[in-house]
What we know:
With about 140 residues, the protein is mostly helical. The protein has helices at about 15-35, 40-45, 50-65, 70-100, 105-130.
Amino acid sequence: MSAPLPPASATPSDSLVTTTHVVYALHTLGLVIGAFGTASVIGAFLFGWPSIIAVIINYVKRSEVRGTWLESHFSWQIRTFWWALLWALVIGIVGTVFAIVLVGFAIWIIGFFALGVWAIYRIARGWLRLRDRQPMPM
């Protein structure tokens, strides 16, 4: 069963839709840099300039999308970034604690890989729904 969709009382301007596409593109660029560069996928997503710029845009433009279906996309993008950071810290701490007995290295590898896949899924799902002009379920 899906969560209810937020009300979309106001229609967003085309420029705000474009801005939301740009934010998804910046997050995607961060993920691609991690996948094909020297950083990890999640490392580039969290600490690379594209995603940091994307989150700043989210916070700067957030008030302009309030009351539109784009508000759910902005919340989705912001939550994706902050939840990824939180889980990266948890994986890092747990992996460090268990590194003493060598299990931590597996926790790091598996955990950061899974977190990278999760971030890719969140960005892809959101961008596809934006393309279809649908809000994100809350």
